Amino acid sequence: MTESLTRRAALAGSLAVLAAPAMVAAQAPWPTRPINMVNPFAPGGYTDRLARAYAPFMERVLGRPIVQVSRPGANGVLGHTYFLQQPDDGHTVLVSALAPFVIINGMFQGARYRPEDFDILNTPARDFTLMATSANNQTLTDIQVVATRLRADPRALSFGVQAASADFVNLALWLQAIGVERSRVRIVTYDGGGPVRNATAGGVVDIGLVGGEGFLPIRQMIRPLLVFEAQRRDAYAAPTFREAFNVQEFVAGSQRGFAVHATLRQKHPDRYERLLAAVKAVSDDPAAVEALARQELETTWYGPEESNASFRRVRAVMETHAALLRPA
Length: 328
Description:
alpha/beta, D-Maltodextrin-Binding Protein, domain 2, 2 domains, 13 helices
């Protein structure tokens, strides 16, 4: 009897030793490895700069490195698809212009995902479309001059814009307002706001339309012409669409921020909360707010409820103007 108990005790001890590493691993604080932050747009644009600026502050909260993963192409389709193909375990975060591009990807580009596949943590950057020309352009002094030139000759000027974007819709609405057929205008499309911004400032195109926040770092190199916003913006001496052309309707600009897989919140609620807390920590950290402000980047905290609701509102507007995104 004693011998049997001794053997059992020894066996139990051996099993405990073997199980110990697994128990320690299970109790190890999450995340257990670096976090990948996927950016589906071209380097140099607002989304790319936002991701890189947030990363060091989020690393301090999470205790793990954040690796920037660039997957540009097809107005975000390649990057969004890549993100959703990664395990929904919280080790991959998306930073994107979620509205309107996730919406547009499904509506017009045949993306195999739905807006419901993304759960937005926060969209600190709520942008607006700005129409501008190079500061070196001495002839395009204001928006009425531009309209007059186009009415006389629709091919007189070239326009740079990101394909299938809110900016593209606003360009189409403006052309309607001035009575110029879009199919007759020289429109150059780019895969990202950064390239549009650079082409505009450098005079590669006569006029560019891109998010006003994206233009901020180089605003001395451009001349603002028109703001697609309810009110004028202090950073730009340009009239609103409503003021200049008495048009009430326009599309809100890109809403940029951070998202996770829609399944993460239910599958790993603790990991979801850690990531949410890390994003919010940047908004609450005075050093982070100051550092991002120096780079003309937003840190406003709206939270997941308002961010997802705002995304749905933009989706409704984009569906209303779907025809304007189809080829002229």
